[in-house]
Amino acid sequence: MNSPFPVPSLPESYDNDMSGHLHLANAQLVLTDRVVTGAVKIEQGIINEITEGEGVPDGAVDCQGDLVLPGLVELHTDNVERHIEPRPEVDWPHLPALIAHDAELASVGITTVFDAMRVGSIHSGKGRYIDYARKLADELLAARAEGLFKISHFLHLRAEICSETLLEELAAFGPEDRVGIVSLMDHTPGQRQFCDLTALKTYVAKKRGMNNAEFEEHVENLLSLQKRFGAKHEAGAVKEANRLGSVLASHDDTTKEQVVISASNGVGFAEFPTTVEAAEACRDQGIAVMMGAPNLIRGGSHSGNVAAEDLAKADLLDIVSSDYVPSALLLSAFQLARIWDDMPRAISTVTRNPAKAARLSDRGALEVGLRGDVLRVRPVGQTPLLRGVWSQGHKVG
C-alpha cells in the first residue's frame, strides 16, 4: 500500500532505548494464577526470563514492590471515532487524530487495541451515517506501516445491520487489512440495547440534535431498514467475517434465543449482553462474555441494562472493554480484584482473556516467549497509579 503521508519512517519507539531490552526487578509479578515477588527480563521485545526473589541485579529497574502485569488488550473502543469527530459533524484531520488516539491509549496502559469503525451507512434523514471506514482504515494502516504508533493496532469492523450499504462496505476489505473482529450490530429501536425508547432518545437526540419529530422519523427509518435488510445483512456479515478471517462477535444480546442464534453464527464472544438471561445463555453456549468498564465503575449501565458488577458476582464475566473511556480499563480490573479477591483473575479480564478471544497467542500474560508488553503499577488506595508502560520492551508511557 502506498502511504498517503509524506513523512519519513520513524523508529519502532519514541524511547531513547531502542533495543527492546528491559529488566524489571523487585516487583510483584501478576502471573496468570498467582502473584509473586520477582523480576521479568525482556530481550528483543520478547519476555525471555522470569525469576522469583527480591534481588535487583545490575542494570535492572528496582520496582520497589510495585505490581508488574501484562499490557492491556482492548477489543472494543469508540475512542478513534471520538478523535476524528470530537463533536457532531466536526471532521478532525485524521493523522493527528490517530496519533493522539494511539498516545492516549499508551498513556493508560493499553498496548494492543482493536479500533472499532462503523461499516454500514444511512444516507438519508437526520440520523444519517456516512461511509468512512475504508478511508480511515487505509490511513491507520499507512500510519502503522510508517512506524508512527506506540502500540499494536488491529481493525474491528462494527457491522451495522440497520443500514443501507453494509455488504458493499464490507466487500472493500480483505484479509491483508488485519481485520481482527467483525461484530454484528443491530440497533433497531425497541430491542437489545435500547428496549427503552426513552434511553435511545436521550442518547441519539442529544448527540444528533434531533427534535421530537426528527427522532420519530429516525426510529421509523431504522425499523424500515431492519425489515428490509436485517436478515440479509446479518447472514452477509457472517459470511464476510469468515472471508476476512475475523473473530465474530455479537452485540447487546438480550434473550436466550438471540444467544442461540449468535452461537449458530459462530460468535466467539458477546459484547455487552443486556440481561442475566443472555449472559447465562452465553456461558451455556461457550461464548465469552464482555462487559464495559464504565458500567462496572459507575455501578450500572447508562442504558438501564444489567450491571457488570452483577454479572461479575454471578461468575458470568470474562472480558472487560474500556468502551468509551480508555482510562477505565485498568481501573475496572482493580475493581474486579476487590470483588473477587483475586488479582490474577481480574487482570486476566483485560489481558489474557481478550487476547485469547481475539486469537492472539503471543501476548496477554507474563510468560517466557510472549511479547514484552508490560505495565508497572502502584496501587494508591483503590486507584492504580500507572508508573510505566512498555510495548515490546520499549517505553511508551
From TrEMBL:
<dbReference type="GO" id="GO:0019700">
    <property type="term" value="P:organic phosphonate catabolic process"/>
</dbReference>
<dbReference type="InterPro" id="IPR011059">
    <property type="entry name" value="Metal-dep_hydrolase_composite"/>
</dbReference>
<dbReference type="InterPro" id="IPR032466">
    <property type="entry name" value="Metal_Hydrolase"/>
</dbReference>
<dbReference type="InterPro" id="IPR012696">
    <property type="entry name" value="PhnM"/>
</dbReference>
<dbReference type="InterPro" id="IPR051781">
    <property type="entry name" value="Metallo-dep_Hydrolase"/>
</dbReference>
<dbReference type="GO" id="GO:0016810">
    <property type="term" value="F:hydrolase activity, acting on carbon-nitrogen (but not peptide) bonds"/>
</dbReference>
<protein>
    <submittedName>
        <fullName>Alpha-D-ribose 1-methylphosphonate 5-triphosphate diphosphatase</fullName>
    </submittedName>
</protein>
